[in-house]
# Entry
Amino acid sequence: MTHGLNRIMWSTLGIVLAALWGLPFVYSVWTAFHDEVYSANFVWNAPLTISNFFEAWKAAPFALYFMNTFLMITIVLIANLILCTLVAYAFVRYKFRWSGFLFALIMVQLLISPEILIVENYLTLSRLGMIDTILGIALPYLTSAFGIFLLRQTFMTVPISLDEAAQIEGASAWRILWDIYVPLAKPVYLAYALVSVSFHWNNFLWPLIVTNSPEVRPVTVGLSVFATVESGVEWSLVNAATLMTTAPLIIAFVLFQRQFVANFMRAGIK
Amino acid sequence: MNKKIPFNLAIIMLILPCLLLIAFTHYPAVRALINSFWNNASSRRPSKFVGIENYQTLFEDDRLAQVMFNSTIYALGTIPVAIGMAIGMALLVNARLPGTWLMRLSFFMPTMLPMIAVANIWLFFYAPGIGLASQILSLFGLPPINFLGSTETSLLSMMFVAVWKEAGLFMIFYLAALQAVPENLKDAAKLEGASNTHVFLTIVFPLLRPTTIFVAVNALINAFRLVDHVIVMTHGGPNNSSALLLYYIYEVTFSQRDFAYGATLTVVMVCLLGVLAAVQYWLLNRKAHYQ
# Structure
């Protein structure tokens, strides 16, 4: 009997905490779906409206921003998948001088990420003449230490006998990679892609520094330019724009919830 | 297996990808160290070697002292609270109570949002007069607080945002760890008459230690790496009261165009992270020693 009471108590505590935790987000949603007059004025039957979303969409070139983010993420993801695979494969399958040292050198990026080095990376980029380009935003992120680490761990679990059998059949190194290693790592590729996409979708500081013109701005930078409240934009529009730019991620999360959680857990177990 | 790598394969597999990584991780770090010994070039004179002059400036820089103080408070304040919240949330979600889906959704949602969106949401939440925070205060008849606009509360308000954003992510790691705790251990303890609290403190909590180390290290790196909310919500103000180290680097370099001092501050940041990594290594090694 006390056990049941306990459960009710804990459950209530959890739900209250969840409600409090969700409050800032719910408040933002409320404002986005109501007219400006209701933005700080709670009337339970206040009329719902989606006109804020239309107005925000028209007030800034969000379609262009989405396109830029999409392009940038695609470049980073494709480069990451190819380059990290190659490096991880080399580390797992071959031995060479300095391999331990080289691996340690790569892992430094986990600690000192490109965000920390904005000053010098900006100078490098301007020497290359790539300031204010989408490729410039992507450049520091094309190889990822996290991706290399994750794929190396996965490739190490591939049975040696499979590899040796393929060698006896005369398969080349590339064929073995493509036919044996890559298919076995498929779930890891999917999980890594999800984490990488969400990271680069959310990235702000580096794109803010690198971009000057709307033509190359990703959605996060576009949102910050739009949502400067001092410029007189209404709160309801700011909230609508904020939700609009994060909606694809929220939808993706709902669709891929299991993989997301599973991957975060896997990263935690390392 | 483990054959010697053929030269042409090594070039494609290792040298090309690693050059990219080195160009944007190691090269800039070394370059920052070199540039920190030179002053800024101007249109009239090229940059010249100034020795440790930039480093002397570090010690006379009152704003830097304030920023380092803020960063320390920020890290020491947010990390333990976020970890504590995360453990509590994980226990709640793991207990199979009614309403678990709501808790999981609500706790994890902030993690999914970009920091810039989180900053906008909280900017509105804190807005004087119109924001929910000041409405709640007035509901209880309390005087309004200008959360982001006063030097006493701005840093604390930013820390709140950071905990809100990060605790849900850490909860996932603890959830994984909790599910790996063997049931029979807990059952055995309960048979012996141990209370729930006792089981948690003596069996579950020690098993969460590796997770806690991992989470703490990540939280520490994030505390230094993520300043999007500072840029959007306060610009480090008022009076530098909410400026963090990376924000200061950003402002010195890209608002004041002082690249030489920006490079010097970058060196400070890299050294700081290096020391923290060494502490991490030591902690992990100590754990291995006890096993």
Q: What stands out?
A: Chain A touches chain B through 85 residues (CB under 8 Å). The longest strand of chain A covers residues 94-95. The mean pLDDT of chain A is 87.
